[in-house]
Amino acid sequence: MTLPVDLPVPSPVDLPDPRALPALDGASLDGRLYTRVTGLAGRAPDWFDALVSHWSAYGLALFAVLMLVAWWRARPGDAPRIAMALAAPLVVALAYTANTLIKTVVREQRPCLTLHTVTLESCPAPDDWSFPSNHAAIAAAAAAALWLVDRGLGVIAAPAALLMASSRVWVGAHYPHDVVLGLVVGAVVGLLLTGASRRAAPLVERARASRLRPLVAPR
């Protein structure tokens, strides 16, 4: 007669949470394209890699400057345009929030951790999720807002957003699909919320008759 063997019972910590969503396997989508791009970065001249790395790290400051210029140029204009210019930073912040919420749901691991490739940018921590790209979302949201507020500045911001998204793949921080969806999230949120902010035009008109006048009028 065979006696039953007592098997170890896993603790609740060891058991998977049935409510947890499976993480996205980004490498199966475009991992090969990612490694080709990072391979090109590894063979590129040092000056070019340094240029792209600096843009990837600090380029978002350009969009902040452009939004400030858009507000300054909008002040002599009509109230809806001023409302959109003032709302642009808030719109960008909301796009970042929406993008971050998607990250926490999808939980895609960074490609530099999954594929173990050599990258220009230091690999983030394991819980710093990859999909979608926050840099791409912020840049796209700013570009969309600027396009509606000041078309001349929007023409500058749109290609700059594409360059920001591309740089995030070049330095190894994101898969291509990460930056593509980041651009989509940012553009959609930016266009919708910036357009909706035109409804705040009556507030701008009231501000022109108050101490806030310097914010909404040139004099």
How large is the share of residues in beta strands?
Answer: under 5%
Query: Cα-atom Rg, whole angstroms?
Result: 23 Å
Q: Report the span from N to C terminus.
A: 98 Å
How many strands?
Answer: 0
| Main β-sheet description | none
Structural class: mainly alpha
Instruction: Return the string of H and E elements.
Output: HHHHHHHHHH
Task: Give the mean pLDDT.
Answer: 85
Oligomeric assembly: single chain
The rough form would be described as elongated
How many separate helices?
10
Low-pLDDT segments, ≥5 res:
1-21
Helix content: 55-70%
Keywords:
single chain, 219 residues, mainly alpha, elongated, disordered N terminus
What does this structure look like?
With 219 residues, this protein is an all-alpha fold. The protein is 66% helix and 0% strand. It contains ten helices and no strands.
Topology:
Layout lengths: L26 H17 L2 H13 L1 H15 L4 H28 L4 H4 L19 H16 L1 H20 L5 H21 L4 H7 L5 H4 L3
Helix pairs in contact: 2-7, 3-4, 3-6, 4-6, 4-8, 4-9, 6-7, 6-8, 7-8
Quick structural gist:
With 219 residues, the protein is mostly helical. It has 10 helices and no strands. Helix 6 (134-149) runs parallel beside helix 8.
